[in-house]
Amino acid sequence: MNLKDKLTIIVLTYNEEMHLKRCLESLKHFKSNIFIIDSGSTDSTLEIAEEFGAKVFVNEFYSQKQQINWFLSKNLIPKKSWILRIDADEYLPFDSILKIGILLSDIDQIIGLVYLRLQRIFHGKHLKYGTLSGRYLPRLWRVGCAEFGAKDMDEKLIIKNGFKVFKTKIDFYDDSLISPINFVIKHTKYAERQLIDIDNGKEKKISLSKKIYYSLPFELSVLILFLYRYVIRLGFLDGRRGLWYHFLQCFFYRNLIGIEQEIRDYYKRKNK
């Protein structure tokens, strides 16, 4: 399959030597241009990228949205082509690659943004329940037909007027191999960025459910969300690894954000 003139792939990296080879191995079947947008890796990330013939750009990191917009501003992608965005710890199975090739070979001109279906793996366990898999995320878009929304954390692409969105059951896999300790360290950085969105009023404007979530004491909001995902949405069916993931990514992470926000607000009031 040769999609060099039809598809450009963007991969964001920072010290991703444990993931990048797997990611690029899956993407090489497209025979497309692959651009690595790196944030100053100090491991063998760039050597792996060059081994696969990917083109590397280095830019200081602020957010995923900023990195992608910085690269797009260079106008290196043909105007009538498509962009696939994927993280280094993600990959596409071969059947998904075939489906994307078929999709792009005969897609309606009115379609500007395509949603792919997320499947999440946590240290060898496919987490099928608790909203962790089966979510649709905007990852494939026609040049000039979509743009990022206001948020910097968990950024989402938004379709421009005059074009339509198409949701597919084409799967991509999020399969991070980092240790639980590094998982926590990574999420503390996510928390910092989410707190910026909260302080700027971007987080609470997304949906009614977000407004309700932030209107309650965070301890109650986090508990309700955890029980919704783990009990009502059957997250417990994923066994011990499912419990570990929900505890770290939902219960711990969101309580951390709430505690940090409360402490910051306390000192702001105290120092007035």
Largest sheet: 9 strands, mixed
What is the CATH-assigned architecture of the largest domain?
Answer: Alpha-Beta Complex
Tally of alpha and pi helices: 8
The structural domain count equals 2
End-to-end CA span: 63 Å
| CA radius of gyration | 19 Å
Strand content: 15-25%
- CATH fold label of the largest domain: Spore Coat Polysaccharide Biosynthesis Protein SpsA, Chain A
Overall helicity: 40-55%
- In round numbers, the mean pLDDT is 93
CATH fourth-tier homologous superfamily of the largest domain: Spore Coat Polysaccharide Biosynthesis Protein SpsA, Chain A
Q: What coarse outline follows from CA principal-axis ratios?
A: globular
Overall strand count: 11
**Unreliable spans:** none
> What structural class results from the helix and strand content?
alpha/beta
What can you see in these coordinates?
- With 272 residues, the chain is of the alpha/beta class.
- The protein folds into two domains: 7-174, Spore Coat Polysaccharide Biosynthesis Protein SpsA, Chain A (Alpha-Beta Complex); 180-270, no CATH class.
- 41% of the residues lie in helices and 24% in strands.
- The protein has helices at 20-27, 45-51, 64-72, 94-105, 180-199, 208-215, 218-232, 239-270; strands spanning 7-13, 33-38, 55-58, 82-87, 90-91, 111-122, 125-127, 136-142, 146-148, 157-159, 164-174.
- Strands 1, 2, 3, 4, 5, 6, 7, 8 and 11 form a nine-stranded mixed β-sheet that branches. Strands 9-10 form a two-stranded antiparallel sheet.
- Helix 1 (20-27) links the parallel strand 1 and strand 2.
- Helix 5 (180-199) packs across helix 8 and helix 7 (218-232) runs antiparallel to helix 8 (239-270).
- The longest helix is centred in the last third of the chain and has 32 residues, at 239-270.
- It is globular.
- The termini are far apart.
- The model has no long low-confidence stretch (mean pLDDT 93).
